[in-house]
Specification:
- The chain is of the alpha/beta class.
- About 50% of the residues lie in helices and about 15% in strands.
- The protein contains six helices and four strands; from the N terminus they run H-H-E-H-E-H-E-H-E-H.
- The protein has a four-stranded parallel sheet, sandwiched between helices.
- Strand 1, helix 3 and strand 2 (about 45) form a beta-alpha-beta unit.
Length: about 100
Amino acid sequence: MLTAIKALLGIGPKADYKALREQGAVIIDVRTPEEFRADHLKGALNIPLHRIRNEAAALLKKKKPVILYCRSGSRSGMAKNILRSAGIEAYNAGSLGAIRRALK
């Protein structure tokens, strides 16, 4: 069941996040500013989900892949879909803990 939910959200080991980061991928935390202040991945940008569509053009200009995370993978999954529809190579890494593990 959990695997099916992760597949729907686009979460999983489909991408090598470490390699993407080394190649200059932009890492975005789509949680609220309060959640971001409490804890976040070093070097991540905070663009809450409700602002992601407005930032798509600026992200597209960077010509870099985007790795997204949130608390559970739900918001980052929605953000991934928004950015992909704008032509951006975007990946849903899931939660903060998941991206931290993937980057070790």
